[in-house]
Amino acid sequence: MQTAQPPKPHPLYDIIILGASGFTGKYVVKEALKFLNTPSSPLKTLALAGRCREKLVKTLQWAAHPSSPPNDVSVITADTTDPPSLSSLCNQTKLLLNCVGPYRIHGEPVVAACASSGCDYLDITGEPEFMEKMEAKYHEKAMETGSLIVSACGFDSIPAEMGVMFNMRQWVAPAVPNHVTAYVSLESDKRIVGNFATYESAVLGVANMDKLQQLRRSRPKKPRPVIPGPRLPKGPTTEYQEKIGLRALKLPSADAVVVRRTLVTLMENPHGLPGINESPEHIGKREAYWSSVKPAHFVVKIASKSLLGIYRILGVGVFIGLLCRFSFGRWLLLKFPSFFSFGWFRKTGPSEDEVRSASFKMWFVGYGFSDCNLASERNSKPDMEIITRVMGPEIGYVTTPISLIQCALIVLSQRENLPKGGVYTPGIVFGPDLQERLQENGISFDVVSKTALPSSAPA
């Protein structure tokens, strides 16, 4: 006779933010406090976790300024190298937000603890190897325990996922898209400065590219979505996109990887992922949303208004590509990030003024067919173009916290409408609800143009 498992105690907190005193973590705390115990917000209880209690207390004071820190926000010491402390966190909260990177170094113990306990988990990583490894190792366990594990809930890759879905949904039948290119443009009145952890993740990602390829070869191949029309054109390394007035360079990024994973999951689940105990209204909303998403090839390019900007990006890529091959080269890259990134990354991160002055625009230029029957014709070329745009504030410390917290609020308020558990991408989990929430919090989505193309249009 099987003994019934004792029920899990009711969690003390709705959310625990792990790594709250880090560069990005403190901005996540600041964003979370906007929704703590406010009318209609599901966030009623919050705790901050990290290695140093003193730093966490200072983070709370900084995030609450100019108000006094809330008395009901708890501070908990925990360490990613201490599994019992992570298990304790998971047993105390409904949802854990992990802001401790690089994730290839610090992330797996946190995912393992959540998958084992049934605690839900969100993070802001942009590291493809980490995300795919977590899916391979913990998806089945998370489905069993009811732990919903979703990575890439920051600038990597919410604007890209929601932005390309927004573009795909503009192709009203019988029109179909063939390929969409995203052009990411970072803008500022002051200097653009990135988070050192982001730079470190990029360096380590390039250095371990062979491990990612090995992981992919070891996994069963999943069927790819069927996309009408020709294969994705290779195109030039650099280009001038006249319609948006930007020069661009193809960017190896997590965004295309995450979007591809979402589309593969959608192929297996054409109406999206059903929730634990979905309301009829949400079922209708989910099915209507996903039936309007038409898959397309997707690539991402980094864009600049000037040729000098493109040369700077190329220079950083060359430095990382060459020096990552050797341990001493990697040491140099991580020891002197400002030098090798031409000032774009520094260990101290950006100042508050630099954060406030920065913003992004992400243009999505889609090519396709006005009639799906045209796509099946031999030597067919797209005869239609749709350009959409996503705009928002600074990417690492403003857009990322906005995206993460909105995903978290969906988990808290709509848990019954979401999948029981598993390791997924944000788009397939939050797609039907997230765009509206982002728009209410400073990230805009616009249709720029819909144009019929001459026969000489890009294939």
From TrEMBL:
The chain crosses the membrane at residues 309-328. It comes from Gossypium tomentosum. Keywords: Membrane, Transmembrane, Transmembrane helix. The lineage of its organism: Eukaryota, Viridiplantae, Streptophyta, Embryophyta, Tracheophyta. Pfam families: Sacchrp_dh_NADP. This is Saccharopine dehydrogenase NADP binding domain-containing protein. Belongs to the saccharopine dehydrogenase family. Residues 15-150 form the Saccharopine dehydrogenase NADP binding domain. One of its GO terms (biological process) is glycolipid biosynthetic process. Coiled coil: none annotated. One of its GO terms (cellular component) is plasma membrane. InterPro entries: NAD(P)-bd_dom_sf, Saccharopine_DH-like_oxidrdct, Sacchrp_dh_NADP-bd.
